[in-house]
Specification:
Ribosomal Protein S8, Chain: A, domain 1, 3 helices, disordered N terminus, 4 strands, about 110 residues
């Protein structure tokens, strides 16, 4: 398999949920950074990043990035059914009207 060929760009809807299962681990950092930027620009300030449970390597990679990211106010493991398979991120800024009226509810645990 030739790893040097260019892959087609993946289109990801900017809706506050990012599933990292479809991305190569080497692309995760840039994907997460770009997605957080796009969400903040759209006024989506609560983002759910699905990294899976597994051995926790991807979760740790995401959390390390979030700890240093200037757009991130807080983050923690999802308190919902996915538990430690997803991280909920709170971005800095004002919540959009759409999120106030129909956003997710739930408690966040902080790392």
């Amino acid at each position: 398999m030739n790893e040097s060929h260019d892959q087609e760009p993946v289109s990801v809807p900017v809706n506050g949920v990012l599933d990292l299962h479809t991305f190569s681990p080497r692309d995760v950092s840039s994907v997460v950074q770009e997605y957080l930027r796009a969400c903040q620009e759209k006024g989506i300030l609560e983002v759910r990043i699905i990294h899976g449970k597994g051995k926790g390597v991807l979760r740790r990679q995401v959390h390390t990035l979030l700890e240093k990211h200037p757009r991130v106010a807080t983050f923690g493991l999802d308190a919902g059914t996915s538990s430690w398979g997803a991280t909920v991120v709170r971005l800095k800024g004002e919540v959009s009207r759409k999120q106030r009226n129909g956003g997710r509810r739930g408690k966040k645990r902080h790392v």
